Amino acid sequence: MQVTRRDFMKILGATGAGVAATSCGAKLDKTPIEEIIPYVVPEEDVVPGIATYYSSVCRECPAGCGLVVRTREGRAVKLEGNPNHPINKGSLCVRGQAGLQGLYNPDRIKGPHRKNEVGEWVSITWEEAQGLLVEKLKEVLAQGERQRVSFLTGNISGNLDSLIDSWLKIFRSENRIVYEPFSYESMKKAGEIVFGVEAVPTFHIENSDFLLSFGADFMETWLSPVQYAKGFAEMHRPKKEGGQGRQMGKFVQVEPRRSMTGANADLWVSVKPGTEPFFALGVLNEALLHLWKKEGGDARKAMLRSWLSYQGITTPKVAELTGVEEMTIKTIGREFASAKRPLAIGSGVAGSGTNATATWVAAYLLTAITGSMGKTVDWGRVQNVDRLTPFTQVVSWVERLKKGEVDVLLVHQANPAYTLPKSAGFSEALKKVPFVVSFSSFWDETTTQAHLVLPDHHPLESFGDYSPQTGIHGLYQPTMRPIFKTQPMGDTLLSVAAAFPSNPFKEGRYLDYLKSSWSALYPKGGQNGSLESFWQESLRKGGYWQETHSKEVSISNRLFTFKVKEPVLEGDGEYRLVVYPSVKFYEGRGANKPWLQEIPDPVTKVVWNSYVEIHPEVAEKLEVRHGSVVELRLGESSLKGPVLLNPWIQKETIAIPLGQGHEEYGRYAQGRGFNPLSILPLQVETVSGGFAWTSSRVRMAPTGERVLLVKTSGSIDDRNRDIAGLVSFEDLKAGSVHREEEEIQDKLLYDESWRHEKGIRWAMAIDSSSCTGCSACVAACYAENNVPIVGEQECAKGREMAWIRIETYEEPSTKGTHPVNVPMMCQQCGNAPCESVCPVYATYHNYEGLNIQVYNRCVGTRYCSNNCPYKVRRFNWFAYKFPDTFNLQLNPDVTVRDKGVMEKCTFCIQRIREVKDHAKDEGRLPRDGEIVPACAQTCPTNAIVFGDLNDPNSKVSRLSRSERGYHAIESINTKTAVTYLKKVHNGLRTA
Amino acid sequence: MAARIFALLSVTVFLSIALFLGCQKLGGSGPIQQPIAFSHKIHAGDNQIPCLYCHTYADRSQVAGIPAVETCMGCHKIVGLGKPEVQKVHDYWNKKEPIPWKRVHDLQDFVYFSHKRHVKAGVACENCHGQIAQMDVVEQVSSLKMGWCVTCHESRAKDKEQLTVLKDCATCHK
Fold it and tell me: What is the value of ipTM here, to two decimals?
């Protein structure tokens, strides 16, 4: 006999009654009783429920941007740029935003460890750990030899740097290596050759009107990417200046593979790798010719011309060498020379070959001959790269390690076992050092080979200073209590030093050392008040900035003896290998942060993996496709990786990003992708001695295998649906760009209820012309809105949870196509297709024009997502976990969504709420610009503007009325609150 | 058929017992046992200490705040010495440990509720928390459920416009 549905319901009803009868009254739904823990003594500057902000310094890369850290109840929950910092002026890049995942990373080393006799890691106390180090150092000292203790650090500048130098002297050693994988030797050397100044200057891209870059990825990793992206946005903005009509700078990028920076160029020139110096000299030659015609000849021009003919530079020859048309070289040369304040910058870090110095020589000369050196290049404010140990010295130091010349090696903020090419043999060298101490917070490739680990605090947990450029002294402070049993390296070094009679330090704690050193800056400040108030003020501001004075430079005679060499290429393969730094991972340090793994690469849109980029025609020839595994071979070494087709790469070139292929480094990085450094030969730049990243010819062969290589983008073509827009600057200038009113296909579907003429209508204006695609907004959104990560397999099913993504489309322009970035998030439609299909009223339109998603109402039908034309709604297919200790980062103002619930961008409603609450206390309405969503806050180029569309004077409504404005897929009458501004393409005049 | 119904009914009984036991574990009805037998009646009632003296954040933050042990000691260094419950406060203070109070009023995590906004709008503490000044042991008197919130929001709205705001989901759902 069957139980019918009716019977079943009856019994179920009885069950319910039974439960009610036996249950515990009104509080059936009561969740477990929580504890509510008060302070013993209340913190002075903390009010629970209200955020406290601390100034700090971003230490994710050597750029040294200023931070403001938002903390709630003693936890750092969000990083933002320090608006008063001279470098980043309030913005952060994608890596900076992800800094929190370094702090809360579950794979951090939780306390000191010692490797026992059988090679296992044993947790020990700090007393034991320091005792062990003291004991070893005493043994070394007793032997009486010098230079037996070596200290390897990253670029740390500031006072920790000087502390380490003094500390080493106790052990009669100056064996100090400051190692950064990107160390700019060729730039320094070119400065010396051209101007007699061996330094790396600061570039004022914002002052230039023509920027010519020979492969510098200045929006990604090069020197100070946020600063330079800001400068670029300013120079490349169509602006009205003093009655001359509209002005807009031009940007030309020359490189073998189109980088994210290159994708923002008005003209991207594809050259054969290693031939950039010849191209640069060719342009110099043309520019000189043009200037000669315009201004007449003089002695300096004549000397340079004869120098160029000494180099054998003629335009046809350069065209042949580089594979670029003569006309292009001529056009660039002429436009460069006729610009008012042109600026040329040389090769980037990783794209540079064995003759990269020559590129920089040509770049400096280009800027110098046009007379804009003082306006666009600042030699008074130089980068702190002078402390970096030149690559050749790093290599010879490794050789000394191999010979057993070092007894104790201490490593801090460096991971050469991963970042040095395998051919340097660092791992073998490490085996010859009897005692290796690591201060790392992570089990990286170097730390796992150490003998003692003394984990340092994360910078967000410690005091410190960092000086990235002349006169910029960043100061950071603990923003919260340390999560684990870590100890600041400064404290460890000072207490170890105290065990030796020759201890030069009077301070026992690093904070005291820092404070007394900081006082050295005080008299120069010329401020009133005590030393203590100067310290407090510096802590509050996040540092202390000094004015610098520009320095004149002139061409030195040394230049005329300089001869450009042909690039040296190792190997006999058919393909030149270009290894480039990743905007997400830098050289690899970001790979343990899952946000960075899951955010698509801005150019390739690949997640969680690395790849071999080849030209589609090459793929056809080799009969491989997306995801096919190829083997690259160079001499004895080889690597395997999946193919990614990239039409914007030279046919005889293959490109590989840095950053993946970690053998260690935690659960998110380990065993993912591959590391191109494993096959790179140990080639150096012939003039400067820097590492030559592009110096090999490799063989490539298909293996027949195919693997999953997940891309989040489906197409580079918006199929005329008006998602992306492009206009030319000429049209804009001529006034022939007009707001197009789209023909609405089906008006009948919606009534006019979207109209919010009264009160507020929150809206956004997004300028595609400013958006570089850097994805900082995406990371900011992950951090702000508790967006979970889902992993590679789920991304493959299109289940990534990002509330904002960067869509890149190739839009037709005068010559071929031009890439346009469209940050896509919930458009907060007036006529929202999602709202009308929700059966449970979980998504609706509120009185301020927001499309609200009520998680508790949502039953997960996913109708809304199916009906969303923008595909911005995200469904929680699983209960995504925030493993210990990532859960500590969760923003308490935003609900953590559960399984079966739809979610999407809210325009950061919690921020709207916070500002409204504050405004209400002051008896006013929120001011324009007071509410800043996380994406807009971090954007280095201010591409995103938020505000009230119903206020005719607000910035957002002024931008929304722009002639470049349009709504994405306007024709379907969704009446979106987001107005995009078409990208402006300022193409070069063809001759 | 009968066998099946019997089986389902046994499940019913089992579930009922399980839920009953579960509720016991969850605390169930009635007053919650606190680590110290603190009496609001003595403090807020008999001695008329204003609510905000201890719950200092109620008019400036989302949360009202639980007094720090230091706040307790402010009076109890002198007041009530020798009483066993006051001695407990001294013990926590001497150990420099916080008192692990049990939460009585617990809103769901997805709710944005600001004490400040309610206090500033002139809502008295008793409106939601009941006659605290007469309770020896605090109990939750209001359901703190959405319907209860909305009823009050509806009754307090001055006009249609304010009603829209006060009834908007996003006002409280975060």
Answer: 0.87
